[in-house]
Design a protein that fits this description.
Distance between the termini: 51 Å
Order of helices and strands: EHEEEEEHEEEEHEEEEEHEEE
Strand content: over 45%
Oligomer: single chain
Largest sheet: 9 strands, antiparallel
Low-confidence stretches: none
Number of strands: 18
Number of domains: 2
Structural class: alpha+beta
Amino acid sequence: MFELELSNARYWRDCVSSIVSLVDEGIFNISKEGIGLKAMDPSSISMVSFFIPNKAFTKFKIDKDANIGLNLENLSKILSRARDNESLVMKDSGNKVVFEFISQNGSRRYVMQMVEARKGAEKEPSIEFDANIEIGGDALREIIKDASLISSYISLRASKDHFGISARGDSGELEEQHQADGAVTKKVSATKNADSVFNLEFLENMVKSCPAGVPINISLKTNEPLKVSYPIGDAQITYFLAPYIEE
């Protein structure tokens, strides 16, 4: 049995939006420490790892650890109906989960059937990255828009003091270079140069839920999965994306 409450229902909406951008169903692992989820997208190109600690909740009551499989697309639709000044209570009821939106004037109650979701990824990839970049989330979204005019893929490069982006397609080429401690990149550190190509659509889905004004951390290693992470309030969202390698 569990009963959880958030003072701001729209906060949980934003958290789930960061997950459903890649996966349509998943298993939430509820423990005394908080709620976590790890899942691969259906194509197995990307992975999402999410955790929100118990301190983010105004009420966090759990009798024992629980694994809750849910259709995330349906859950996202329900949460999209969250309104200003509503709190959210989540609790289990047999093989169902109750979501209750509560305001000063009343309440609305949705009930979702649990599902046999695909088994989540057991752990994150273990990679010794060669480069780490801290970049403004808004700036990265603009870079992705620039690249999408040219190609469906983007090349990310990092050296000791620079972060570079390029895209090439039938219509032309894009090249961008940003120095560390600049308006776009806040920090760049690299033990060796790193350069890989990634699918733009997946990368766009990863960064679109980053809150305004929040920096994004990128970790790179040549021809290894990309790591992208950022906080959503007290929650932490991390993505991994396999590189595109031409055969």
